[in-house]
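Changelog-adjacent note: as of this version, every example in the card shows the full chain rather than a window. The one below runs 630 residues end to end.
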Amino acid sequence: MLFAALLLALAALLGSAPSASAHATLLFTSPAADATVADSPTSLVLVFDQPVARSGSTVRLKPAAELGTPALSRGDRTLTAPVRSRLAEGAHTVDWQVTARDGDIMTGSYRFAVGPRTVALGAGQATAAQDATPMAVMRWLLFTALALHLGELATNRLAARIRAAPARGPRPWMLPTALTGCATALALAALQAGGGSLASLLNTRPGVLALVEVAGFALAAVAVLTRRPTWALVPLAAVLVAEALRAHPQAQQAVAGPALTFVHLLAAALWAGTLVHVLRTIRAWRGERAAARALLLAYARWAAWLFAAVVATGLIAALLLVPLEDLTTTYGQVLLGKLALVAAAATLACIARRRLRRTAASAHRPARAETGVLAAVLTLSATLTVLPAPADADRPLPFAPPVDGPVVPAGTRAGEIGISAEASTGQLIIDLTAPRGGDPAQQSYALSAALADPLGTRRALKLRGCGTGCFYTPVPWQKGTSRLTLTASAEGWTGGRAGLTITWPPRPDAVLLREAVAVMRKVPDVTLHELGTSNTARGLGDLQQLPLTGEEFLASEPYSSGTAPVTTHLPDDNGHRRLALAFPAEHTQLTLTLAADGRILHETLTAPYHLVTRTFVYPEPDQPDEDHEH
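Full-length structure tokens:
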């Protein structure tokens, strides 16, 4: 009864663990890695491809600077550390550490520079598992203990079916393997706790799975001590489930991924562990050639099915995790090594089975060699658990990456689709907006883009989704004016082609906007010529003329206060100064053309549902009376 109660508690503990994620990989930072920012940043922002745990997340700066407590946002994928002190000019290194949802502690570093001058930085940023070597060793011990325990149970079952099998057998290993597995799982749990109490693991998903493995091996040891060794199958199955929930394929397929991993681990453990104990049993049966040959034949028939399961599930999982073009990565290379070893083990198994047709003794040598190869397979399997799988560069992001430094805003319209763009250091973010109707989150968008740089070189941009209607692409902006050609579409609405210009580098200029607004407030009379449209495929709309005062015009403008979230000075046009304004929360952009005295001559306003073009005509100034002067 006590054992049954403990099994129920183990099942409840396992059921409380939410779905897993693969190793967290750092995608974006602000300030960007290897970038130079003009002013000291107020915060450090790190964006990961998977949620990370709140406990154990740290961010440090070198040279040392005062940082606030890091906070998580955006579904626990964004880590923000406030910068409390002003950073000096020069290069700064960010060292970070987070706990991935699979329980592994991930670390990395990157550099950025502060100051008006360009600082050469080439280190980039990378993500790695902390304590990868001891973690891999412990996972190998855990896998080996699991394989040997399951293998001994399976061998005992096979041996029981052999007619005239000797009563003697090898010394049991089940208790030592269960205790070894329990100690190893406990060490892994302590490593995941990061110096905290083991009780704190109950508050985290990786902690729950780690405790499941500790309890699973402990219950297996209890089953052995109570002389009910087959009862250990249930808690050991829980260990396999916990491993399946933390493995890489789960991030790709929430249901099929763990199922693949469970079958793969079970088949591999039985293949390797049973072979070890079959050879131990045959050694204990010296002189009983008929029984030894029968046991080897029984194992060979069973191993063929196990091999098929290992290969099938392994290949499917590999295709989910590593596209062919990523086989050159470290993960891909280790995976290829594992596949080669599995093929070698299969070859040795075939040789042993062929020799077995003659005598059992002749099959011992290739079988022992197969055991050594399978031990190496377990080693590489343990290594793969601590290596980050290759990131899918085409996988949509859950949200747009943070903007780094000054922004060049731009906006236009393609048919009925509003286009809002933000160019910042090393990247371009484009938002599409269709007219209201239905659930906006269910609206389907498509976008293609081509860029002509200041030298006239044209190339297609590879876009990556970052939310509904949001598209991201890395762009190393060159000094001068680049031209974007966009083709946008949305299901149920008219799309089309549109163009945008991006002048780099940005020149923030909040003063010029304040001056222009101050001048417009004093304008007593202006005629506004306005064209407005919600569908550029039908033209720019009908012309309207509105006589206004400058104060009346500003009353309906988003920049009437003289400020805007983004204000950028564009290149002058025929001697006229130009400003680009952006209100990101409203997906609204404006372009203003100013006269020498600060009055607005032209305005283009792009909002989610309309495009407005305005020209301002001012009365001619009074001419002096020449006759009166004479």
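Structural remarks: The mean pLDDT is 81.
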